[in-house]
Amino acid sequence: MKMDERYSNASYGSAGLAAFFASLSLQDWGFIIGVAFSIILGVLTYRLNKREQMKRTKILQDILNKTDS
After folding, report:
1. Which of 3, 27, 37, 54 yields a CA-CA distance of 20 to 30 A from 45?
2. How far is CA 67 from CA 3, 23, 40, 54, 61, in A?
3. Any transmembrane segments, and where (predicted)?
4. Is residue 19 a part of any domain in this protein?
5. pTM (2 d.p.)
6. Burial label, 64 (beta-carbon count in 10 A; 0-12, 13-18, 19+)
7. Cα separation, 14 vs 21, whole angstroms
8. From the centroid of its chain, how far is CA 38?
């Protein structure tokens, strides 16, 4: 592979990627942003719920240990 072919492939690839994103309508962009936002909120909700459950489990474990003593 020559050096010119590598740059040619990179320029064709970036042009193709730019053409793909340019072909998306406003509705498509809204959908993509909405899906990304929903995924982010879902992950954050999962992490928050897991942290709260760990706190609750630790509190209950401490109470159980105090009553056993």
Report:
1. 27
2. 75, 66, 41, 20, 10
3. 7-24, 30-48
4. no
5. 0.64
6. exposed
7. 11
8. 9
